[in-house]
Amino acid sequence: MQANTVYSYTFNELSDSAKETARGNYRQHGLDYEWYDFTFEDWKAALLLIGIDVSNIYFSGFSSQGDGACFECDYSYVPGWRKTVKSDFGGSMQTILLAAGERLQAIQRPFFYSVSATVKHSGRYSHSNCTDFTVEPGERFESSDIIDLEDDIKSVLRGLMDDLYNGLESEYDHLTSDSVINEYLQDGELQFLESGTMY
């Protein structure tokens, strides 16, 4: 029987091509956990402030036809939403919520803030158009207003679904960026073969 010596290396000791192999292996297998859970919870909490109670989120991504995100929810108007949004969220999330909230409030005003909606996922894909809407205008409405009302509600909620997808894609791009992967792979306990395959 012949004994062979196998040398192992830290990430920083690898050649540039071996480092790229190590990063590629991580991109393929490193996100085998629910990395999107925090984004889901953040969005659920945020959308609830403007009256959108999300029960389920569906998504697929990020490089195939049909990729996208959608959610199932119940929607109704929440008084005082603007103040809560401004106190609870900042940055881009605040901007998204304020814009959507303003549009929803404008939609609600002619109906005396009595509009409600339910959204369900449909079809085999996960993008924003894979959703069925049931919109209830309340008691005070003109029948001619219903079609426009449904279209307006769909436009706002589907826009938020697209914003959610963009947020998920940004988080994925961050987690699979060279700098983040390098930081993980530079852990001194990780060892690699000369090719860049983890030892």
What would your notes on this structure say?
The protein is α+β, with helices and mostly antiparallel strands. The protein folds into two domains: 1-31 and 185-199, no CATH class; 38-175, no CATH class. Helix content is 45%, strand content 15%. The protein contains six helices and four strands. The protein has helices at residues 16-29, 37-48, 81-88, 91-108, 146-175, 178-185; strands at residues 52-60, 68-76, 116-121, 131-136. It has a four-stranded antiparallel sheet with strand order 1-2-3-4, covered by helices on one side. A hairpin with a 7-residue loop joins β1 and β2. α1 (16-29) crosses α6 (178-185). The radius of gyration is 23 Å and the shape is elongated. 25% of the residues are buried. The model has no long low-confidence stretch (mean pLDDT 92).
